[in-house]
Amino acid sequence: MKSFFLPSADNPVLQWLGFTLFLLIVCVCIGGLVVWLKTAHHAARRKRKHRHHRPSNPTLAQTGGLPPKRAPDQPPPGP
Prior knowledge:
The chain is mostly helical. Helices cover 51% and strands 0% of the residues. The chain contains 2 helices and no strands.
């Protein structure tokens, strides 16, 4: 029966292979994060677009301007 052979970590080829694999995993994670942030940012910007079918509050020019001046002895209108 053959015993399982596990190469030692003293082997320089295995050290470089492990380091390369680690760098590859880090790069894939960072790349995935960048892609996710770009798509999430784009989706958030898309949601904040102004919708043209909703009417906005009209300006004073659109409603006919300011009301006429009040007499000095007349109190301001209350709520």
